[in-house]
Specification:
- The protein has 22 helices and eleven strands.
- It is α+β, with helices and mostly antiparallel strands.
- The chain folds into four domains: about 120 residues, no CATH class; about 120 residues, 2-Layer Sandwich (Phosphorylase Kinase, domain 1); about 190 residues, no CATH class; about 110 residues, no CATH class.
- Strands 1, 2, 3, 4 and 6 form a five-stranded antiparallel sheet that branches. A four-stranded mixed sheet has the order 5-10-9-7.
- A hairpin with a 5-residue loop joins strand 3 and strand 4.
- Helix 13 runs antiparallel to helix 18.
């Protein structure tokens, strides 16, 4: 049941949201979902504005989000990375969302800084530029100089933004709960999607988290001289204020200025590719907002990065799954790709495998025979979008975010160097991950986990069987089974169970050997024991096969 008190407080905002979507032609969709029935007072439906008649539905959606303000702009930017939720034309349109806003007066900024630090900013800085370097819907940025002469930038959150976002998120949670009970809820999980949006947005508004992201990037790239991450001034950073070292450089897409100051654009393209490939395949932690305004080229073709609010995370399992998909794609194995998608949870076991396989085969056929350097990541992502939407492929959101990130970085790279080849740079990292697939450190723990599961099963089975038999004897477990089979049939059934038990024991023995390989020290004695164990397992396996063949 909804919180009616909260809804009453948010009623004007409810009316605004629904009115805007109705004006943009989405009224029938809202009525289909039954959203209007859950409002305390009805919204008077207005006709679509004539000045917007020429827009496409996707353009209407983008403009509606822009009219509704920062929360919805941010949600639109997040949606632009989710081709499993919206058709490709909507994804393309949402990618155009601009997060800009008129600057707030310095007096309000000063009050916000004083509240955060407990002291006026004039006491902490040698000077502060009251004219902002940039102003967005959530924050604005000012340049400043510390007493020791260090130049910094101050990112300060707009004072009234947090209550607005909390209100909007609560409304979205209510609307998601309503939508969950509609036909749309049978395909997607609106409540989970809104919760994911809320988590992403709240993380971006927590500048302590952004500062931790910056420090993590600095640590990851400490041995990469071609990448520079500015230092965080923790003594001045709070949840609502972030203070970073100021860096200077040429915007990464300003080729004319680079050439004028003697920087080789091709080297910059190579460094930017190493940046993203290392982030993705080695660290599993990547900058997820790589538009040109967030990267500066410093002397020596060094790339300096800023704005660490939006990041992506890839677990080791995610990266290995990506490499497996890559291998299957290179082999043009559509069947294996479908199996891998199901294994990753992107497609359910009930998906129309034949239809999905045909769609993937058509996609692969487009790239058959092409050298990797002629394949563009952005084009691949664009081709995947319709398939993802049609079959509701639910890859982790970070993987969709990765697709958009790769496309943006590739676009920058091609501007810098027309012969830019992302695959050539990524190949050594991918090869390293492929080799790791065959190492005991990769498959050993998984086998050990299976061994533990079998051990738990063997421990529980006697107690569970005893309880079941006791229940049957006492009549507490109603069970009526009548067997009308001959003795030879029961004997064959008994032999089958015996073979199954021997198979489990033999399999457990082999798994234990695999665990020893992956975790035991590499000493001659241990290796000798492992070798003896494998010889014993082979002997038992041979005896088992012979005994089975004799009884066939």
């Amino acid at each position: 049941m909804f919180n009616y008190v909260r809804r009453a407080q948010n009623l004007p905002r409810y009316r605004r949201i629904i009115t805007v979507f109705v004006q943009h032609g989405f009224g029938s969709l809202l009525e289909q979902w039954g959203v209007d029935r859950y409002l305390i007072t009805p919204v008077r439906i207005k006709r679509r504005r004539e000045d917007l008649e020429r827009l496409t539905p996707a353009e209407h959606f983008r403009v509606a989000l822009e009219e509704l303000g920062p929360t919805f702009i941010k949600i639109g930017q997040i949606l632009s990375t989710r081709p499993d939720l919206l058709p490709p034309e909507y994804i393309e349109e949402l990618s155009k969302l601009q997060d800009a806003a008129p600057p707030i007066p310095w007096e309000e900024v000063e009050a916000q800084l004083t509240a955060a630090w407990g002291r006026p900013p004039e006491e902490l800085f040698e000077s502060i530029d009251k004219t902002p370097l940039a102003a967005a819907s959530l924050a604005q940025v000012h340049a400043a100089v510390l007493p020791d002469g260090q130049e910094v930038i101050i990112k300060v959150q707009r004072p009234d933004i947090w209550p607005t976002i909390q209100s909007d998120l609560s409304i979205l949670e209510d609307l998601a709960a309503v939508t969950q009970r509609t036909s749309l809820g049978e395909i997607y999980d609106p409540v989970d999607i809104v919760q994911e949006f809320a988590f992403t947005l709240q993380s971006e508004l927590n500048y302590l988290q952004e500062a931790r992201n910056a420090d993590r990037f600095r640590e990851n790239f400490k041995d990469e001289p071609a990448i520079y991450i500015p230092k965080v001034h923790w003594e001045l950073t709070t949840r609502r204020v972030l203070v970073l070292e100021r860096i200077y450089g040429v915007k990464i897409n300003d080729i004319a200025t680079m050439e004028r100051v003697g920087i080789d654009p091709k080297q910059v393209a190579l460094n930017s590719a190493r940046l993203i490939v290392k982030e993705v395949l080695e660290d599993g932690f990547f900058h997820a907002d790589p538009h040109p305004g967030n990267f500066f080229v410093m002397p020596g073709a060094v790339i300096g990065a800023v704005d660490f609010g939006m990041v992506g995370h890839l677990s080791r399992e995610d990266r290995i799954n990506l490499v497996k998909l890559y291998i299957a794609s290179v082999r043009m194995d559509a069947e294996r790709i479908v199996d891998q998608l199901i294994h990753m949870g992107a497609a359910t076991a009930y998906v129309n495998r034949a239809d999905l396989k045909r769609s993937i085969s058509r996609l692969l056929h487009k790239y058959r025979g092409l050298p990797l350097k002629e394949i563009r990541a952005q084009e691949v992502v664009n081709d995947i979008m319709p398939v993802a939407y049609r079959f509701h492929l639910r890859l982790p959101s970070d993987l969709w975010l990765l697709g958009k990130t790769l496309g943006m970085m590739e676009g920058v790279g091609l501007q810098l160097d027309p012969d830019f080849d992302m695959f050539a740079v990524s190949q050594p990292f991918a090869d390293r991950l492929m080799r790791e697939l065959w190492m005991p450190s990769t498959w050993g723990p998984e086998l050990y986990g299976s061994l533990q599961a079998w051990g738990d099963f063997i421990q529980v089975m006697p107690r569970a069987g005893s309880k079941l038999l006791h229940g049957l004897e006492s009549g507490k477990v109603p069970l009526d089974m009548t067997f009308d089979v001959q003795k030879p049939v029961m004997e064959r059934f008994d032999r089958a169970l015996t073979r199954l038990a021997l198979s489990v024991i033999l399999g457990s023995f082999i798994l234990a050997q695999a665990w020893l390989i992956s975790s035991a020290p590499a000493s001659p004695i241990v290796m000798g024991l492992v070798a003896m164990g494998f010889l014993t397992a082979m002997g038992l396996g041979l005896w088992f096969i012979i005994s089975v063949l004799r009884q066939v």
